[in-house]
Fold this sequence. Notes:
The protein is an all-alpha fold and 300 residues long. The chain has one domain. 79% of the residues lie in helices and 0% in strands. The protein starts with a helix and ends with a helix.
Amino acid sequence: MNAKNWALLCILSLIWAGAFLFAKVAVSEIQPLMLAFLRVASAAAVLHIALYMTGHRFNWSLSAMVPFLVMGLLNNAVPFSLLFWGQTQIAAGLAAILNATTPIFAFLIAGVWQKQEAIALHRFLGVFAGFAGVALILSSGFSDLESSPVWAQIACLGAAVSYGLAAAYAKRFKGTPPIVSATGQLTGSTVLLLVPAIVFAGSWSPITTSAVAWANVIALGVVATAAAYLIYFRLLAQAGATNAALVTLLIPANTVLFGYLLLGEKLVAVQIAGFTCLLLGLLLLDGRVLRLPAIQKRKV
């Protein structure tokens, strides 16, 4: 991790933290499924342009599209819809914290269930600490059903489970250029969300939607999805998956800070305690903190 990669990591964490704020503002005027569709459709359009400009060609055949449809369902359509639905009732910062459980579910699915990853004691301790943090966060919903209903928090956890399934499924795209897999899954999710978005749009009209809401939709699709994917895949190539995963630790804190400064959102004490437990769990799951003493000894 050189200075350039640290800068990319920080930029990416700020963009993805901002995504929760963009969604919070936009979902106040746009139905969650429609917002999810607008996000993936705009991002797919931008990435298809980028794909063409970089000399890649997209395979539209049914056999090539099926894996992208599955990935688009797990990594975009389901989690985006659940997060936006949850954010109709809970703060952006709380949604980001709950979404930060993604590495825990990814480990349980890929490591424990599918045995794709190594299993170690520190990882199980990380899962335990993470779920303890989630339990604390959810407990706040029982005492404050108006501002943080439990169902909305569970919806955000459902998004994290879907991301975990997507991480396991993504192994089959190992030989595919990152920009192609990103474009493919966003195209797949656009196709999947088109009909549900129209059916459940209700009385929503693009004409009566405010300019502020549209600005946040564009920010969600173009900046927080298309541009963010390009940054993320570049970081993956230059710094590796383990270092790129550090973005998970930065997003919730940035979102909470942005939510407080820009939207006036606040977390109650038990949610802060839960976030602390979850952060500890993510650090244990990551494992690199435990290796620091050994690294320092070798340097001495």
